[in-house]
Structure formats: C-alpha cells, structure tokens
Amino acid sequence: MGDVYALDFDGVLCDSCGESSISAVKAAKVKWPQLFADVDSSIEDSIVDQMHTVRPVVETGYENLLLVRLLLEIKIPSLQKSSVANGLTIEGLLERWSDIKPVIMKEWSENREELVDLFGKVRDEWMEKDLATWIGANRFYPGVPDALRFASSQLYIVTTKQGRFADALLRELAGVAIPPERMFALGSGPKVEVLKMLQKQPENQGLALHFVEDRLATLKNVIKEPELNGWNLYLVDWGFNTQKEREEAATYSRIQVIQLSDFTKKLK
C-alpha cells in the first residue's frame, strides 16, 4: 500500500516569513504612502521582526499587509486609524486576530481582492528586479528538499499561497518540479474541498492519505467534515504556529504533532 501526502507550503516546507514580511512592508508603503512617509528603516526593521511573532495568525498572504499596518499603528499611536490598535498587545493580536481582521478591513475601507493583487504585484516586481534576493529571503526547512526529491509517495501541494511563488521557490531553491496538476494554490478553493477531490481521484484509491499542516484551525476544519475521516492529520512543530496551538492539537485523537526529522523520513 502506498501513500498520498497533501502538503501545505509556508510553514511546512518553506520558511517564507522573512520574504513575506519584507514584501508586506514594501506593499504597505505603496498602499498607504502617507502613513509610511515618515517611517524610517529602523521602524520598518522592527515591524519585520515582530511579523515573525504574529505570523501564525496569517491564513492568506494579503493579511501580512494588514498586520504591518496594524503593528505600525500600535507602535506610533499618532497614526492610529483603527479602534482596535489602542492598547492592543502582540499577545492580544495573536488571540483575537479573527475578530480584529474584519474590523480593520471595514475601518480602513479595504478590499480583499485588491490587497491580494497588490501583494502579488509587489512580489512579482521584486522577483523581476532581483530574483536572487527574493529567493534568498526564503529558506526550506532542513532536509525538506531531499525528502521532496526522493519521495516515494504521491505528493500534492495544498496552499493558500499564489502558485507561481510556490513553484518558483520549489524550482529555484529546492530543485524540485511539482507538476501543475499536483499544485493547488490560492484560487483552488478551500483546503477541505481540495482534500475531498484528491481522495476521489482514481490514482489515489487504496492509498493511505496524509495531510500535513502548520495551522491548527485548518486541521480542525478537516475534522468537522465526516467525508474526510480517512485522512491522517499532522500538525508540524516547526512551522508558523504557537506552543499553545501545539498543546491543543495534542488533545485531538485525529491529530499527530510531528517533528521535522520524522516528517522527512516519512516522505522518503
């Protein structure tokens, strides 16, 4: 019996936090030039540092822009345009992001699709001007490129990242080419729907199904779907999640918290 692995990208295969945070600052400066007019590079650097702490709340890339602006408002109260920034701590942001996000989207009059497009455009421009630096702001977790290259399992990428960026990183940084029909990226629909489709594909019949994620909320969504009871679920202990989330994951019988060395062995 063989195996099917559906793999999240950011936080499972690739540590993209440096690149996504820098790209978010670049995009925020384009989106809100008046807010960032007097922001010096030391403040930008400190926001990029803080982004590593708040990264676990991000489900889709455009949220990085919202976080960059919110962190700026927390840091410089005179720039505050949102009701939530006053007195907000990093811990509070981590705990309440799902409530905060719709509030700031409304108060800042933002449109999700516009932010998605801008974030992609800024990344495209960076890649075009200086591919080496863009690539270098990302890193694959140790052992992952070899594990992907020599995997004996059926591999699928299931990510909310825009596919062209995941594909570029796999090719340029990991030396791995994933066929387009095995790449499900932003625009492919909710991950639970992708998993339902994958388990019905003829080539996956009779194989053991494994889904590897770094977001506990995504795995909890899978558990809510009886149709997906056949999937083995894993939360990685090295990605963009918190100790609290890993402890909570351990209370679910369906979820296995997995270490990087075990993950790379499984793929091979």
Element layout with pairings:
Elements (H helix, E strand, L loop, with lengths): L2 E5 L6 E2 L1 H15 L1 H4 L4 H14 L8 H13 L14 H18 L4 H18 L1 H6 L2 E2 L3 H6 L4 E5 L4 H10 L10 E2 L6 H10 L7 E6 L2 H8 L7 E6 L6 H7 L5 E4 L1 H8 L1
Parallel strand pairs: 1-4, 1-6, 4-5, 6-7, 7-8
Antiparallel strand pairs: 2-3
Please, could you describe this protein's structure?
This protein starts with a strand and ends with a helix. It has 268 residues and is α/β, with parallel strands linked by helices. The model has no long low-confidence stretch (mean pLDDT 96). It has two domains: 3-15 and 139-267, Rossmann fold (3-Layer(aba) Sandwich); 17-133, no CATH class. It is 51% helix and 12% strand. The radius of gyration is 19 Å and the shape is globular. Strand 6 (208-213), helix 11 and strand 7 (231-236) form a beta-alpha-beta unit. Helix 1 crosses helix 4 (63-75) and helix 3 (41-54) packs across helix 4.
